[in-house]
Specification:
The structure holds 2 protein chains of 2 kinds. Chain A is an alpha/beta fold. Chain A has 8 helices and 15 strands. Chain A is globular, with a radius of gyration of 21 Å. Chain B is built from 7 helices and 12 strands. The chains are: A alpha/beta, B alpha/beta. Strand 15 of chain A pairs parallel with strand 1 of chain B, so a sheet runs across the interface. Chain A: This is Metallophosphatase.
């Protein structure tokens, strides 16, 4: 309590100091700010579109078309982030031939901002993943994989904060339990930690310590496992607070629109996933007003 | 002004001018990526040399299939599964023998691991990628006869055409229980060590195959199953595998 009073008083003093030098322009009505989050997951090396004869996904997907779409959206709103929720690798011969080099180079050309790590990203071993890092102009986040005793040490951060148009966006990553899913020889000394505990830590750091306006979780733990205790994006949404959006992967869940869940304090959290193979691009727009007239129950959600 | 008054003033100012931005609205949707979108030309140009190199290699013809073979062509054994299991023996055993002086007794693979049909006509490297897209690699495991019997029980219960090599003869009775099992024509000897070739995924318990542990030794051949197929197809002018009686259920 004492600490809180101190903060309030010091804030007051700071603001007062600011007021004396402030001119009237500061009081013009604040504009609405818009942050666009674009996302993919489980693209699995699907660089070319599916052919016209494909039984399920004929003429869908393709990185070059995704680039056209992303460029158009960025042109409309420069305050756009492009994220990937893992399993970038494995699924077409492009991966078998080039080891992920082309996937990373193309994601860099599309100006991806961040990705998290999926189980298939270990398919050429952790050394195979590390070997492709020089081809990635984007960064990796994972809060629950500890890479300290591996070659990936320092190449993956728990979270990253990106500021767009003055809006502070905190993004952290989560990965799936590797034991039983990926050969130990592949992930080596990568240590897995409980996603919910890590997410609680991350949202506290990003919301309370770093004062982020928006907290996003980039997850590869899977959308939902029916009749199972297995941790999932839905369970994660319910067990945490201060997360605005969970972008998921792994289960190849084709959601036609984001799911709205209630978090541990009864506020809304969006959970989204766009299936696999780059057939769709997820798009979530966040609108911010400066300060006033915000309803107590949170933002209006249109999905 | 008292401290309290200063604070109130500042609080007022904070709310109306300097407050942090508040989230007011969220809109979410998904956008189709399909042929209504034009391909970005510079991305397309960048991919092209990779694609051409890959296709040239992938489309090189390495064999010919007399029929179309599918993993669902039979209840307990299929021509495609037999081809795969026998190829793992034929390509893997010379390597295993050279390293250890021993021979593979039996190959076990999983039905789910076959990811595509082989179509009648030319067989290319692409065919091997379609059948076996994963990076799984060949391992040989030493197992006591008792565990081989566990394996037979597993095969009887799974009721699927898990591929086995020609060295095994497994008959289930009409109830689906093991009626007889022989390797090289001989009954399974509980105390003998058998060398079973499989892949690393199954060795690590994939598909519920928990009979590979404990074991009498693991031999990692560093030989991807897909490369086994490519090498085998290259040596075989015409693929004509047959469904046979290596794994069957008796009618009565």
């Amino acid at each position: 309590m004492k600490r809180r009073q101190f903060i309030q008083k010091s804030t007051a003093a700071t603001v007062l100091a600011g007021v004396s030098g402030m001119n009237l322009q500061a009081f013009t009505p604040a504009k609405t700010k818009k942050i666009t989050i674009l996302h993919t997951n489980d693209v699995h090396s699907h660089i070319d579109p599916f052919g016209p004869d494909d039984g399920r996904n004929a003429n869908k997907g393709g990185v070059a078309r995704r680039a056209t779409l992303v460029n158009a959206i960025r042109k409309e709103n420069p305050n756009t982030l492009l994220l990937d929720a893992g399993d970038i690798f494995q699924g077409t011969p492009y991966f078998n031939y080039y080891g992920g080099e082309l996937e990373f180079k193309l994601m860099s050309m599309l100006k991806y901002d961040l990705a998290t790590i999926g189980n298939h990203d270990f398919d050429n071993g952790i050394d195979g993943l590390y070997a492709q890092i020089p081809h990635a102009d984007f960064e990796f986040v994972s809060a629950n994989y500890d890479f300290s005793n591996t070659v990936m040490d320092t190449h993956v951060k728990p979270y990253k904060i990106i500021i767009k148009d003055g809006i502070k966006i905190g993004i952290f990553g989560l990965g799936i339990k590797l034991e039983g899913l990926v050969d130990k020889n592949m992930y080596k000394e990568t240590v897995y930690h409980d996603p919910i505990e890590k997410a609680q830590d991350m949202s506290r750091i990003l919301k309370e310590e770093q004062n982020c306006d928006l907290v996003i979780c980039l997850s590869h733990i899977g959308y939902e496992y029916r009749n199972s205790d297995k941790v999932s994006d839905i369970k994660l949404a319910q067990a945490t607070k201060d997360i605005d959006l969970i972008i998921g992967g792994h289960t190849h869940t084709f959601l036609s629109k984001p799911t709205i869940e209630k978090n541990s304090v009864g506020n809304n959290v969006l959970v989204n996933q766009v299936g696999a193979y780059g057939l769709y691009l997820g798009k979530v727009d966040f609108y911010f007003n400066a300060g006033k007239n915000v309803k107590a129950d949170g933002a209006t959600i249109v999905v | 002004m008292t401290i309290k008054q200063i604070f109130n003033l500042c609080f007022f100012l904070l709310i109306f001018s300097c407050a942090s931005p508040k989230l007011s609205k969220i809109e979410g949707k998904r956008i189709d990526i399909d042929n209504t979108l034009e391909a970005n030309a510079s991305i397309e140009r960048f991919i092209k040399p990779y694609r051409e190199h890959l296709n040239k290699n992938m489309d090189s013809i390495i064999s010919y299939a007399t029929e179309t073979y599918s993993k669902s062509d039979g209840a307990y054994n299929t021509a495609l599964g037999n081809l795969l299991a026998d190829a793992i023996f034929d390509e893997g055993n010379p390597i295993f023998n050279k390293r250890t002086g021993k021979n593979i007794d039996l190959v076990l693979f999983n039905h789910g691991g076959i990811r595509s049909i082989i179509s009648q006509g030319n067989v290319s490297i692409r065919t091997a990628y379609q059948v076996m897209p994963f990076e799984n690699s060949t391992v040989v495991v030493g197992l006591k006869g008792a565990q081989i019997n566990d394996m037979m029980t597993y095969l009887s219960k799974s009721k699927r055409a898990h591929p086995v090599s020609r060295h095994l003869q497994l008959e289930l009775n009409k109830n689906g229980d093991v009626n007889s099992a022989t390797i090289h024509g001989l009954p399974i000897d509980d105390s003998k060590i058998y060398y079973v070739a499989t892949n690393d995924y199954l060795y690590n318990g994939g598909d519920g195959m928990d009979f590979f542990h404990p074991n009498e030794g693991l031999y990692v051949l560093n030989y991807k199953i897909r490369d086994v197929l490519i090498d085998n197809f290259k040596k075989t002018d015409t693929l004509k595998p047959k469904r046979d009686k290596r794994f069957i259920q008796l009618k009565d």
